[in-house]
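Weekly modeling sync, notes
Attendees: S.R. (lead), two postdocs, one rotation student

Agenda item 3: backlog of single-chain predictions. S.R. asked that every request posted to the team notebook include the full sequence so nobody has to chase files. The rotation student volunteered to paste the first one in as an example of the format we agreed on. Action items at the bottom.

Example entry:
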Amino acid sequence: MNSEKLSARLEAVASFVEQGAILADIGSDHAYLPCHLVKLGRITKAIAGEVVKGPFESAVNNVRKKGLSNEITVRLANGLKAIHDNDGVDTISIAGMGGPLIASILSDGYEKLANVKRIVTQPNIHASSIREWAVQNGWKIIDEEILKEDHKIYEIIVLERGQADYNELEMMVGPFLLKQKSEVFIEKWKRESDEWKRVLASLENAGATTDINNRKKQLQKKIELIGGVLIQ
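Predicted structure, as returned to the notebook:
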């Protein structure tokens, strides 16, 4: 993968960045995404934020090699601290992290979202954490995508400002993905359901403490919820 040829998951993330956006790519790694979008002419300015020194230096070198130092500013910073007030950032992308970490980055840097119109996230796990964050903080889901690459399944959740209510199933699997019910979606949730059933079976022989009983009820509810999707 490089800035000319992104991975399928980053190509999907890139597709949700609007023409003319000013992007802050948080956890930018080699800055492949902002470099790609500048080269495409989709954006003219970007911030690439990275908290780890090694990837930060890789991003700096990559941006310099591509001759994009005037268009892309690389900053060593934690989360949204990479964004400065005069950057004019209106779009944020955060890809390749766990859902809870992405949600905490958004919460910790919430004041940096004042002028942001769109957030594009690609959680590796626990995508529901981002949906929960959105509902609690005045953002709504405007689109989602699910894809499989190198035997791994990834979800993309795109947020804009607004209010929306989602039921328990929609929060778990995604309201747009639930409507689409793609083959990858069915594969993911069949796999999850099978794992829940395995854990539930193991708990049947684990005694009857309050914690175990509560865990069993949670698993039974999730299995029941997703079962209604898988049989349709």
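Discussion: group reviewed the output briefly. The CA atoms of residues 80 and 110 lie 8 Å apart.
Action items: rotation student to repeat for the remaining queue; S.R. to check formatting next week.
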